[in-house]
Structures are given as structure tokens and as C-alpha cells.
């Protein structure tokens, strides 16, 4: 079969819809925190689309979209407006959606992505503001088998940002990496939870193929119903193969909207693709145009946190590896904790960074992974973890004992020094105290002694382990090694 890699070039553009974490909806005062609420309880005449009601713009939502635009290297328009987007779906309470068409708030941005060691720039065409729709719930009567749909209006009117890329993406893997990085940035700046599984971060993909060496775009297919990064990758990979087979056999790809069937791992036709003219856009008469002063935008720019790429590069200046810096900067809460931990430690910056990284990527990561928890759930303040780390650095306790103290700290909240004192866990570093234990271990393990004297250096590690067990991990390992070597010789 003809392969995509040799004969065709894949062209992908992504449209990402993101819920903003504002307290209220976009054009009314209803709570936007509707997750888990009873259906149709976060509603009012405005978001129900009742006649005679008037929308009012949510200022915090405008602030958040400007933050997103700045973080994505966009130009921020001094003048923009809202438009009515008309289409006859039952989840539109007013019969139209308030959106933006020709004058979006943000345009001409970019995002760099890296796949297989190659960095490419994906241009962002626009970032515009709109409101979300209601949610349709499809059911079937268990007795009659009749199918029907219910409407939950809680989601209607929630602030929604649409981020539209240019068709610059060249593979499903690149599309996935773009989405992962986009979500990371939105979470870093605090404008969205951006959870795909909960619908906070939704993606539609436009994909087409063209013969390699040409620059004419072919008919595009829009793929919907992808609710995870894995689903996006699988759906685009399938569509890439499907279109290649159609074109290789002499057929023509139909411009249409297709849905991803996650169980069957195929895309299925849904409807022909709409054009902008089908929506009959016109300026929203009930809302004034937006005029954003340069001073206001600059004040927002100054409040932006350090973004992931910049933070990762700064962490590398501490002497951390690319891998370590990448993991520590992956999540803002983790990065912030690492910096607090590093600041609370003693010593040279490079040593403090290494100690903090070892704890973050070791015991802290283990604790979080075992509970499938986020960094915010970690119960030990950075200053208290620094106290534990310094007990190891000063030789007060061993690394083995420190792990036990760590578990006790996370379970009880007790300070490390208090746990060490209460349980008598201080490191034994007195040669006279350890020499008797060393001799006892040597006498109890004649085979290991014989192996060592036969040239098997690894045998001494076994003997060290026996001494550590006798002392419940409290013995100074370096001193134990010296004493064992001395006694054996």
C-alpha cells in the first residue's frame, strides 16, 4: 500500500476550545462552577435566552483571554467586537452564539513544539472570545426503546476561548505535542484547569493530505469527539491513513465533519463541513465594541508568571540536566515547590538545586504517583522538607532513615527533627560503637568473608547491608565500609 510518509504530506490545523476559570459566566452573573451541580440550577433569564434580556461582558474573562494571548506571543487588538454566530442547534438557547468573527481580541501568535529532537514553530491565527453552549444528554426509554434528548443549560454561557492554529502541523505526534504544551501554558498562567476529560479543553482538528512537493491545500476533513491526547493522536493517524488510501486509489477526499469512534478506533461521517458564510455572522447589537488600552494590556503582561520554557532554561543554569529541568518545570505547582525547597536549603546554589531535585523526583514523586495526586495535595511544606534534607546533608541521619522519616512526616505532619529525636534515629558515627557490630557481622557471615578474601569485592556490600540492618539504617555507611575493610584485612 502507498505510504503517507513517501507520497503525501500531512497538513493539520487545530481549533482548541478552553473554559476559563472565572467565577461567573460570560454575559451574566450565574456561577460558572457547574461541575457536579443538578441540571439547570446555574441559570438565569440571560443564559436561558429569554426575550428582552441583555448580556453584560465579564471583565475578568477579557483579562484572562489577554493573558492567554500574551503567553502565546499574540498581538492584542486595541479594538475588537462581538458577533452573532447563527446556527440552528438545540443546545443554543438564543438560536445564536455570541462569538467573534473578523475582529478577534488576539491574533498572529505562535508556539514552538519539539518532536523527536526537532523544534518547529506553529503559528496561531487567532484567539477569540465566545460563550459555551448548553449540554445535550441523549437517553433511551428502557420500556419503549424510544430515544430522546434532554438539555442541561448549566454550561450555557460559560466563558470559552477558541485558539485557532494555522495549518502548520505536519504529523499526529506534532499535534499531540502542541496540545500538551498549550495546556501546560494555560495552566501555568492560571486561566483554565484545561482538563480534556472534564470538557475544559476540547479540540477539533482539520486534516488534509497533498502530494509531496506541492503547495496546494487539499479538501480538509474536520475531526471531532476527541477527549484525550491519545484520542487526538489515534484519530489523526487513522484519518491520515484513510485519506492516503482514497487519494492513492484515484479517489477524492470529501470535505466533511467526521467524529472519532474511540471503541472502533475509526472516524465516521457526521455532516458536510460548514463555511463561515453558513453562520451568517453580524455584529452583536447588544454589546459595545471592546477598546483595550496599551497601558491596561501592559499591566497584564507584567503580571504574567515565568512561562515553562523560560523556567526550564533557568533551572538548567543551576546545573540540572535537561531531563531534570523538564520534569521540575512541567507543572507550575511543582516548579514553585522546587524553588521554595531550594531556597530553604543551605549551601551553594548548584548543590541546593541537586538536593532539591533529588527529593522532588524521588520521594515526593513516589508519594504523588502512589496516590495519583497532583502537587497541590502534597502535605509537607517545602521548609519542613528542607529540614529533613539538611539532616541528611549534615550527617545527622542516613538516607535510608530519611525515607522512613519522610513517610512519617507525610502521614502525621510532624517535623523531621521531632521524629528523629522521638524514635532515636540519629546516625551512629562513633567508630567504637560500630566496631563491635562489624565484628559480630563478620563472625556471623563466614561465606561472605571467604568470598571477599577470594577477590569478590561485591561481598563487602552484603556485609555493609547486614550492619545497616542491625542498626536499623542508622550506621554511617562510609564509616562501616572503612571498619569492615580494616577488620577483613
Major sheet characteristics: 9 strands, mixed
What is the average of the pLDDT values?
A: 90
Low-confidence spans: none
Alpha-carbon Rg, integer: 30 Å
Q: Percent of residues in helical segments?
A: 40-55%
Category by helix and strand content:
alpha+beta
Number of strands: 16
Gap between N and C termini? 71 Å
Please tally the helical runs, counting DSSP H or I stretches of 4 or more residues.
16
Strand order of the largest sheet: 2-6-7-10-1-11-12-13-14
Number of domains: 3
Overall shape: it is: elongated
* Strand coverage percent: 15-25%
Summarize the structure.
This protein has helices spanning 4-7, 59-71, 172-188, 229-248, 294-303, 308-316, 322-329, 332-344, 349-371, 382-393, 399-412, 416-423, 431-444, 446-453, 459-470, 477-488; strands spanning 8-19, 75-76, 79-80, 83-86, 96-99, 106-115, 118-131, 135-140, 147-152, 159-165, 201-211, 221-226, 256-261, 266-272, 282-283, 290-291. With 489 residues, the protein is an alpha+beta fold.
